[in-house]
Amino acid sequence: MVGMGRIGKIHFKNIQHQLAGAEIVAVADLRYDTALKEIYNGILFSENPDEVITLPEVDAILICTPTSSHAALIEKGIQSGKHIFCEKPMDLSLEKTTTLSEMAKEAGVKLMLGFNRRFDPDFMQANQSVRDGKIGDVQIVKITSRDPGPPPIEYIKHSGGLFMDMAIHDFDMARHIMGKEVAEVYSRGLNIIDHEIRKAGDIDTALTTLVFEDGTYAVIDNSRKAAYGYDQRLEIFGDKGMIKVGNNLHNQNVLFNQDGIHHALPLDFFMDRYAKSYLKEMELFIDALVNDKEMPAGGEDGLKATQIAYAAKMSVETGRPVKLSEVMINSHHAMEKTSD
Amino acid sequence: MVGMGRIGKIHFKNIQHQLAGAEIVAVADLRYDTALKEIYNGILFSENPDEVITLPEVDAILICTPTSSHAALIEKGIQSGKHIFCEKPMDLSLEKTTTLSEMAKEAGVKLMLGFNRRFDPDFMQANQSVRDGKIGDVQIVKITSRDPGPPPIEYIKHSGGLFMDMAIHDFDMARHIMGKEVAEVYSRGLNIIDHEIRKAGDIDTALTTLVFEDGTYAVIDNSRKAAYGYDQRLEIFGDKGMIKVGNNLHNQNVLFNQDGIHHALPLDFFMDRYAKSYLKEMELFIDALVNDKEMPAGGEDGLKATQIAYAAKMSVETGRPVKLSEVMINSHHAMEKTSD
Amino acid sequence: MVGMGRIGKIHFKNIQHQLAGAEIVAVADLRYDTALKEIYNGILFSENPDEVITLPEVDAILICTPTSSHAALIEKGIQSGKHIFCEKPMDLSLEKTTTLSEMAKEAGVKLMLGFNRRFDPDFMQANQSVRDGKIGDVQIVKITSRDPGPPPIEYIKHSGGLFMDMAIHDFDMARHIMGKEVAEVYSRGLNIIDHEIRKAGDIDTALTTLVFEDGTYAVIDNSRKAAYGYDQRLEIFGDKGMIKVGNNLHNQNVLFNQDGIHHALPLDFFMDRYAKSYLKEMELFIDALVNDKEMPAGGEDGLKATQIAYAAKMSVETGRPVKLSEVMINSHHAMEKTSD
Amino acid sequence: MVGMGRIGKIHFKNIQHQLAGAEIVAVADLRYDTALKEIYNGILFSENPDEVITLPEVDAILICTPTSSHAALIEKGIQSGKHIFCEKPMDLSLEKTTTLSEMAKEAGVKLMLGFNRRFDPDFMQANQSVRDGKIGDVQIVKITSRDPGPPPIEYIKHSGGLFMDMAIHDFDMARHIMGKEVAEVYSRGLNIIDHEIRKAGDIDTALTTLVFEDGTYAVIDNSRKAAYGYDQRLEIFGDKGMIKVGNNLHNQNVLFNQDGIHHALPLDFFMDRYAKSYLKEMELFIDALVNDKEMPAGGEDGLKATQIAYAAKMSVETGRPVKLSEVMINSHHAMEKTSD
Lengths: 340, 340, 340, 340
Known about the structure:
Four copies of one chain form a homotetramer. Helix content of chain A is 41%, strand content 22%. Chain A contains 14 helices and 14 strands. A seven-stranded mixed beta sheet of chain A has the order 11-10-6-9-8-7-14. In chain A, helix 1 (6-18) packs across helix 11, helix 5 runs antiparallel to helix 12 (299-318) and helix 5 (94-107) packs across helix 14 (331-338). The first copy, chain A, starts with 5 loop residues before the first helix and ends with a helix. The A-C interface holds A 135-137, 139-140, 142, 146, 186, 188, 190, 192-193, 205, 207, 209, 211, 215-217, 219, 221, 223, 225-228, 231, 237-242, 319-321 and C 135-137, 139-140, 142, 146, 186, 188, 190, 192-193, 205, 207, 209, 211, 215-217, 219, 221, 223, 225-228, 231, 237-242, 319-321.
């Protein structure tokens, strides 16, 4: 493991205490709880990522550091012949992302991206129902994805923007459910929540239409702030029916009084809302390693979602639909360029 | 028609403007809107019920007067050979009720009681689903029946009490859904809403267990006041599943804000909540007349519900379960007695 | 009244039996039920619309004929100085629509368009909640509007197409809720339900983004066929919360069995689903006449919705967002042209 | 820990990996997974409960064995001065239960009973809302408690019967929410699910009215088999409103198709449904030990629930309401008797 921040700790606990088939050999971070070292005294706690990545007994690495260091760590992993799990995105640069995806493929290294929402039990069930033909041919996917509040402005500044940081999960989900590739993107962006976000050069609200190769489409509605909390919904409409995935509420209680009938709010912190998806994605990562399966969300998926994010941004800037081919970069060209 | 109060007007409008197969020939009441007389100038508006009931062109009478006059009007109707629709109950006295039920049967006069809830579209659908075997053999029926607030204390004083006035609808519903007869009744009564109701000798809250002939049971929970409005729910549990009938809300809107997720309250006035049931019961009354069918809620049903109400009251007073046989009155005996 | 088809009969019944303040003096249609003539023997039943429209005792006319005759009847009404209620749209031609809207305004004739959904109790309540500030500033309106099945192909051929015939209600709703004007329209259209519709030159599925003057937007998703019935939903998201308007289901019953928890389908016929909205719109039309108020959905609203429908169609054809200014027609110019 | 069966393993994992403040020193069971011994090599794995209970470094014991051994282990714990967590019930005998409750109190040993449902987050929230006055004075508590299917008949035979084994949780919940003592119990029992259960001398379906000291009441409806799974619902009605606690469904997905609108079934295994309650009860047990607080569900609570179960059984047998005083046993008398 490289990186033991908020998300790193989740993966650490899941692997050590909830999942079979893998164990943590070494961890690299700059600081540790001393308690941790004592409890897990069989694990190497290092401050040097390279030391951890190159350990011979390490089969695979988990990259849970800030985005800016992802690319270098992925490259190091590939060079060391280790399989890789990396939190999304691989890199803010499309060229770099293209290169890394290509490098991993050529090196035969398994690469999984942390598109955890794919592995949420509700969304998995919805996807399975689609695959099982429960709603026939899918005609439209609708995603509502709103945060309970914007992250700190310093985070925003280095996030790559709303599309790259936040909507990228939804772009991946739309492709995942549709099982097709996006051909064109039309986005509208707004800055109506926080003036600081505008000053940081980002938008805080967006509406995106994804047009797939066969003309069917998805629509994604993003906001950095929903007054009622974390709003994560999905609707899939097909010629035989519709599947709706609702929010996970704090509790199942309903209060009836003279003012109305009142339900609890949605779970408002992503680590609560998606606790099960983090566990499941790690289970599937380990399963793909142990049983030599294809990764359920690989480098190509990371690249595609990044391309869509680039196209969305360009669409907001130009006011017109943008074809995905407009932002795609020839991967060999990219490799030459980024290897300079 | 005899009686053009709140409920009479509903039936009047339904027959004249919504339903085919019947027309109103004459109406008896003590007072009329002059407007009414002008609009419906083909109708006889009388102040004398007897004049209306005995009119040769009248085939059937609707009794929509206060309870205290029901018995005499039913008797008059039977003697005149008219079919009868009467708002529940026939009479507050069990003896009288027994007699009237028997008299109608012997005279071959069709008699329908205004157990309108049976004819609410939701409850009808629930009953049909039971009849269709959707939930297998019914094991328990659960009814929640709460008013939005107590009626005027003057009304309470002449109402016959909570069981006779309010729960009687639920007793009828339980029998109707179960399709069996009640053998035993256990009720608890409370006086916790309004001190005036206690002074009037009535309870305002009750919980009743109805045990049917085969040992299965129903439970009914009544209150004169629910802070959130008119609460009318039904659950039917069988060996293959359960049917729940929920409340009809004011609207389908949901408000999400920082305090929660808020739905509208239930329809809080019985004439709104049961508007469709009044229409349907009249449609079925006319249908039974025109096509010579059995009445869907007849004198026998009125009598049974009244017996249960008597047993419930006795149970509260004695603190023990009361067998229905304890309150039943030999009908011939009753006829002799009430004919004195 | 001109036109006594399906929708005409609804208005007729509502005015005669449910509403005060107006009465029907004369009706024009080509055929009548003889029964109707007998029951309403005070009403003139004519086969000549002009005879009805020009009657001196007529204050206002209701136009409930097929679309192709709307324009001529509206003109006749304006010339006769009668106030007008007309089912949407005024005309399939944008020029004609522009002219009619202008003519009515100049003649001081009150003109109301049958955008009945505005007057559905649920949508009215939602709109009122927005006006009351319950969700703060509106950031996005989302409409799902799907029919239970396509109308007959002959109807489609003369309908003006999906946007003009069906989505026009949603365009009006979006403007109504937003309380702002649309500046730009981006639509995607598909033909995936019925091959006959494609042959008739129409689409059967569409996704539309409406961008308002201030950059906020609405998204509307239309389909001619939802397997589960008539899907009419609205979401309004603001900085203080969200309002969702759900479907009206056939009943409130829920069946629990080993396969799941099952609710009834939405009301699947528009005349059931919107029964109350037809009543309310007529009540408001009469109220505006009697109390000399502004019409709640006037000629200008009809024109705006038609302009949006034109822009949506152009967007599908060109594959790009279309500014509303691109389809607007100078009204005086239009009047000259259509008066030729 | 004594007993490492299904429930024991849950507590073990929760203490070792999820909770702070306690650690497991020793475990007694007859058989172990060898894997377990290897992983937790600091823990004493014994086959002798006494060895474990009397260890000086043990502060508290967890009793997770079958019911028949509870009493002896509790006694041993009390004699050894250890605090005790014991799965419900303490014993099938009311005398023994009375004695144990008294013994623990006199010895100053903290004793907690595993009434885990009290600690389910939804029920805790409901209880908190009642305590916060959200619904005013509670007038009625309604509990629906149905298993997805009967346990093995061998289990039933030694379970103490439906009231002692299953409804006891609901009796505790009713007391817990009401915050008052039960004065009288009226139960109806049925045998309509499984003939084998009848042969084993038990019922499989029951309806119970609990009358509290002040006349208010609760109603509990139990079944050993609900076709749609594990049905665990609670309604609390007060003079200012109502709280409903619904089931936890498998997922939040809804499928709409031509047959209806379909939701997932409730979680159907008690260890899934109440996973969080097991964690919470252990957290509160540890907290009460570490911070010297009163146990949240103590010996007195265990005794009261057992008394109610006895009264319920007697009510079914006699067909009449049974006062709790009829089944209460003088504790000193009981101690003398059970110490023979």
